[in-house]
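Good morning C.,

I know you're traveling, so I'll keep this short. The sequence:
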Amino acid sequence: MNTPNKSDQELEDRLASRFLDVLIRAGLILAMIMLCFQIFSPFLTLMAWAMILAINLYPLHRSLAAKLGGKQGLSATLIVGISIVLLAWPTAVLMSSLGDSIQQLVSDVKSNSLQIPAPRPSVAEWPLVGKKLHGLWSSAHADLPALVQSMQPKIGDLAKGALGFVASIGGGLLQFVASLIVAGIMMAFGEGGARSMQAISERFVGPERGGEFTKLSTATIRAVAQGVIGVAFIQAVIVGLVLLVAGIPWAGVLALIVLVLGIAQVPAVIVTLPAIGYLWSGGDYSTAMAAVYTVALLVSGMADNVLKPLMLGRGVDAPMPVILLGALGGMATAGILGMFVGATLLALGYQIFMSWVATNPDALKTRSEADSPSSS
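The tokens, ready to paste straight into the viewer:
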């Protein structure tokens, strides 16, 4: 009578011991994952940008490596070096000049050596802000020290914010250069990395879908990058041509600003609206021509709203609205980096959901019965 009870007790002891063993192992694995993430988290943004850059530059790298006799390292080094020279160095020079200009402006304001020209009478006729702006401008022209004294706290905060903005751009530039270097290393070992990523995907979703998901992720990241940069470039060209035809001063510089704003997902109307104000306040244009140029600037400033839906989803096995919503939602959540992550995750989620819908056993059974020939 005691034998079954004893065997049951031994079975319970073995199950409890095995469960405790599994629980301890799972706890140790979870602790290791948390420690690894904590160690890796300071480099997470850098590595994400490096992967995005590597994915987008890899076709160029393969083409250049083929021309160099298969020298992967030399090709990656050349691409990284040329990219730094073409992008990072001019940006660093411009940011240094901007920082010097802000410091000089602050110094001139403090020493009361800054001279403000008198405003045009037509400024007062601007809608909404014309009279207030004209009065403030006139006060600055007549007695700048008194105006500065009355606005001292605001001006000080504004100057600190501007200098902080320049410093943050400098930090972002250093991070971009570091990401570009890491991307070069990834490209040099690109074939092995591609095989590893496909193996990881197959481990998560199975051999049948792993390769498909890897290609979808790569295509989505490239589509978002090409869509954002391509749309920004096209819009900058359109706005620049309109500014040039309209005779707006510094049209090339303003077009370059539009390009930078477009890449950063900032509306181009920040540039086109002041240009429209210049058209109407200058007095050098007839009413009809000013109206024509105003319409052209408004349309060109909002061209990205038409171009993004056309270019964001190209080459991706997912509907364009899915890519667009993922990019916009990701950008609203985590900035420019979130734009790539959001579009990729939403595209993968869409594919998983549609695959689940397509494998509905009841629908497959109904479809097979409908396709089978009816028995007589």
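Safe travels,
E.
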